[in-house]
Structures are given as structure tokens and as C-alpha cells.
Amino acid sequence: MNETYDVIVVGYGFAGAVAAIAAHDAGAKVLLIEKMKTPGGISICSAGGIRISKDKDQSLRYLERTNGDTAPVSLLDTLATGMTEISSFVEKLAAKTQATTKTTTANANYPFPGYDSFGFISIASIENYDQDEAYPNVRGMRGGARLFQVLERNLADRGIEVLLSSPVKKLLREGERIVGIEAQISGKMTALSAQKAVILACGGFEASAEMQKSYWQEQDVQPVAFLGNEGDGIRMAQAVGADLWHMWHYHGTYGVKHPDPKYPFAIRLARLPDWLSGHGFPENNAFATGSKSDQPRMPWIVLDKNGRRFMNEYPPYLQDTGHRAMAHYNPDTQNYPRIPAWLVLDDEGRQLFPLGMPSYHQEGVSFEWSEDNKVEIEAGILHQASSLEELSQKTGIALAVLKQSIEDWNECCKNGLDEEFGRPSETMMAIKKPPFVFAELWPIVSNTQGGPVHDDKNQVLNPFGEAIPGLYAAGELGSLFGHLYLSGGNIAECFIGGKIAGENAAAES
Ligand SMILES: Cc1cc2nc3c(=O)[nH]c(=O)nc-3n(C[C@H](O)[C@H](O)[C@H](O)COP(=O)(O)OP(=O)(O)OC[C@H]3O[C@@H](n4cnc5c(N)ncnc54)[C@H](O)[C@@H]3O)c2cc1C
Questions:
Q1: Which of 21, 202, 230, 251 to mutate to test the pocket of ligand 1 (most atoms within 8 A of CB)?
Q2: Ligand 1: which atom is nearest the Cα of residue 229?
Q3: Quick one: which of 120, 303, 389, 509 has the most CB atoms within 10 Å?
């Protein structure tokens, strides 16, 4: 072993940073080691809202209902309890770095009991901070970058050792116990010892097409923001006997591809409330400041390859389930009739608001979505057709079917009733005015939830429910969310689970 630490934390996103801070504050000598040249992972692109709870019992009720028995209640209880306590930790981190926090009340995404017991805490402002200077390779919802800056300053303030550009390849064992890691440091395979524990906080498998194909029915699923999370932590945990859970589940939706191969991400489609709630960006745009219409209208419908609608395009939480109906595989025709699907809207819809929300953490990439969606038409992300005939020709959808689908939809809009798929009436908008706008629509993944199973100390478990000595996991690597997702829930897990993992790792003898 070249170097000895008490605790080695693998992956420098929110979960890794919090785990490193918690382990250090509990007295451990810590190394935080990161694969990529720049830290931040997916975390830095996020909205940065950490879910909190005003009432543990009510929040637990909600979490149980939306978890669908995919994680033990005791762990959901730990998460709900953590949501009532995490604010003071975040406030302390903020106060140390000339940052201010903002706390809001915000309902959870589904109308189940306890949905109104939640809120968010986020970083409102930081002194002497300019995101574009600090993170030139990042485009996202700014709140995530602010939260990351607070963590970065806290790590620096504590003198916690950080190694970048150093992918961890393997966990080292003595008997059953994890005793260190092997990483590629400055191009050389190097063994580092962790006398107490290793914490895996190295994200999911958003950027591993190979793993996605083994765990998900739908193909091809496009990543939206970051290429560093290739499932390394899952493989390393598997290699030492970890059980896995929630591999099928991802925080995803539908979106469009950029035709430029230099832009390696798909772009999520936004709803107007996403902009209005500040989940869009930049934050001073006409939507977030409320100077544009605040109706939740959605200008598009989604058609399958044969030209028929197949889903409510406006489910309760688009960024959770938007992709799920696309997964259908037709065994008779042996294809995916909904991948890609077709996004269709008209010229009035095109002018309503920016349809896409690009986000990325990637060197050499730069892209802003225009407010009237015109730049995207010029770039070939969206396309136009001057008539339904031309739309039929360009999409390959039979004209009669296309006309019928549009007619049926316009009838739904007139009656304010979508009997077949139950789309909310206030979101409906007829498609009438050419030129029509269309695009191929793909299932896309913001982040995955699957990974090693852990207990209430965030220790990784084997398939018999026994802890693997000296191994912890935190963040989206083995998230509790295995059924329906709670917005802000992943970041809550990074903070709550990261803190638990760090403290317990440091307490090992
Ligand atoms: C656009 C977008 C918006 C989102 N918004 C929200 C939101 O508002 N609220 C919310 O709760 N969630 C949100 N999410 C999800 C949330 O941001 C993530 O689930 C969470 O931040 C993951 O944090 P993490 O620390 O587990 O992983 P990451 O932040 O991805 O960090 C993992 C790190 O591990 C590194 N790594 C990987 N393999 C190795 C290796 N072998 N060796 C060393 N390092 C390695 C990676 O490079 C990366 O830096 C959003 C996701 C996206 C994409």
C-alpha cells in the first residue's frame, strides 16, 4: 500500500463530498478520490434543492406509499427522520462559506397522504462567487452548482485531501474486510489503504449503455448531463459480493437528441411550471420571473411510430415517469413502436416557451436553448412541416392516421377531456396552426437509482443481508427509490446517507 488513510471516499459529487466532510469531522483522516478532471459529477448540474420534512410521520407515510415495498420501512424512516434534521447541517456548511440558505414549503409530486409535509432547503447566495467563472464546463440549474461550491469550500477549509483524474478500479480485501482501493493515479495503478472503511459514492450508470441494456427493457436511452458515471461502483461492489437493488429504476423522462455528435447528451423537455418553479434556467428568464403566462399548458402531443397517441404526455411528475410508457416492446413486430416516438406541436405552441432544458457537466460543450425554439429548428434538433401532408411524408406516418390523431386530439381539447389517457384539461392545447413542429423523442435518463443494497448505517450488504465489513455506499449508488421518485429525493439521500456513511465509517475501529 502506497499511502494510508482512515476513510477513502470514492466519487466527488454531493454524496462523496458530504461523506468526506462527515468522516473528517468525526476525526478520520480522509481521502476523496475522483475519476474525472473536474469534480461535481451529476450533482453540479442539478437544481440543488434538498428535500426536507416538516413532519416525519407524514413524510414517512408518503415515502412508504411511493416506495411500493421496494426498501425496508426502517430505511425510509431513517430518510424521513434525516429530512427533519438535515437543515441545520446545511446551514452550518453555508455559514462557514459566506452563503445563505433558503427554505421553502413544497408538496411532493404525487397526491398521496403526507404529500404536503415536505419542503426544500437550498443555497440562495454565496459571496464572491460567479458560476461561469467557477464552473465553465457546467450548464444546469445553478442551484446545484451553488450547493456544490459550498461543499467545495468546506472541504478546502478543512484541508481534506482530494485527488482528481484518478479512477478507482478495484476494492482491496483482507479476508472479508475491505481494506483499501486500487486506483489509476497519474497513469499508474496505485494501492491505497483505508484502515477504517471505503465509502463508494461514485454515482450510477447513466453513461453505461451496456449496463442499461442488461437491466432495462427500453433501448436506446440517452444520458442528459454527464459521462463519468459508468457503473464502476456497482461493478466494484458486485466483485466483493454486494447485493443490488432498484437497477430497473431511473429518474428519467422523454427528450430530444442534438444532431451534433460533439453534443453527447439528450435534452429534457420542460413544462412551463418547471420554468416557473425556478427549475428552468437561467434564473432571470421571463418565465422564472413570472412575466410570461403561468398557465400549465403543454403545446405538444406524443405519437408512436404508427402515428397514434399512447400516453398522458403530462403525468404528475414528467421527470419521473415520462419515459415509462415508451418501454413497450412489440413481440409480433419485434420492435419498439414508441422509440423513437414523435413530438408534434404547432406554430402557436412553438412560441409558448422554450421546450428544452439542456444541462451538462462536460468540457468543450456549449449550448443554450432559445426562448422561441427557432435556433433549435435551424440546428436540426426540431423540424418543421408546412402541412400535415408534409408532416406525414417527413415522419413516415400514414396521412390518414396522422389526420385522425390530430383531429381526435383537437376534439379532446375542445371538450377538455382526454378519455383515453387522462391528460389534465388545463394542459391541453390544440394543434392547428402550421408550420407544424416535430422531432424524434427518446427515453432519457437523468440519473439511475440502482446499486448496492445498504442498511441504516449505509453499510453495503451481501445477498444474505450481512454487512460487508469496511464498505459503505451513498448517494444515487444504491438509492432507496425503487418505485416512484420524489423530486429532491436524490440530493436528500446524498446529504443524509452521505453524512450517515461518513460518521459510521469514521467510527469503525
Ligand atoms: C439535470 C439533472 C437535474 C437534477 N436535479 C435534481 C434535483 O433538483 N434534486 C435531486 O434530488 N436530484 C436531482 N438530480 C439527481 C441528482 O443530482 C443526483 O442523483 C445526485 O446529485 C447524485 O449525486 P452522487 O454524489 O450520488 O453522484 P454524482 O454527483 O454523479 O457523483 C459521482 C462521482 O463519482 C465519480 N466516479 C464515478 N466512477 C468513479 C471511479 N471509478 N473512481 C472515482 N470516481 C468515480 C463521478 O465522476 C462523479 O464525479 C438531477 C439530475 C440531473 C442529471
A1: 202
A2: 37
A3: 303
- Domain total of the chain: 2
For ligand 1, which residues put their CB under 6 angstroms from it?
A: 10-16, 33-36, 41-43, 45-47, 49, 140, 167-168, 201-203, 224-225, 228-229, 232, 251, 359, 446-447, 475-477, 488-491, 494
Whole-angstrom Cα distance, residue 473 to residue 460? 6
* Ligand 1 binding pocket mutation candidate from 43, 234, 472, 484 (most atoms within 8 A of CB): 43
Question: Looking at per-residue confidence, does 242 or 140 come out higher?
Answer: 242
Question: Is 60 exceeded by the pLDDT of residue 291?
Answer: no
Distance between Cα 121 and ligand 1 center (Å): 18
State yes or no: pLDDT of 178 exceeds 50.
Answer: yes
> 65: which 3 cell numbers?
406509499
> pLDDT (tens digit, 9 = 90+) per residue, 472-504?
999 999 999 999 999 899 999 999 999 999 999
Kindly state whether residues 73 and 165 are assigned to the same domain: yes
Same domain, 304 and 413: yes
Determine how many CB atoms are found less than 10 A away from the CB of residue 452: 27
Distance 11 CA to ligand 1 centre (A): 9
Residues 202, 64 share a domain: yes
Question: How many C-beta neighbours within 10 Å does residue 141 have?
Answer: 21
Q: Which of 445, 464, 485 is the last residue of a domain?
A: 445
Q: Say how many Å lie between the CA of residue 15 and the centre of ligand 1.
A: 8
Which tens digit of pLDDT belongs to each residue from 206-227? 999 999 999 999 999 999 999 9
pTM score: 0.96
Return the residue matching grid coordinates 446545484. 144
Cα–Cα distance measured from residue 124 to residue 233, given in angstroms and rounded to the nearest whole number: 32
Counting from 1 in the atom list of ligand 1, the atom nearest the Cα of 476 is: 26
State the cell numbers at 93. Answer: 456548511
Distance 423 CA to ligand 1 centre (A): 32
Q: Show the domain range for 207.
A: 3-249+449-506
Specify the CATH number for the domain of residue 178: 3.50.50.60
In the reported structure, the alpha carbon of residue 362 is separated from the centroid of ligand 1 by a whole-number distance in angstroms of 13
Measured in residues, the chain has a length of 509
Tell which one of 10, 458, 490 to mutate to probe ligand 1, the residue whose CB is within 8 A of the most ligand atoms.
Answer: 490
Task: Annotate 4-17 with b (16+ C-beta within 10 A) or e (fewer).
Answer: ebbbbbbbbbbbbb
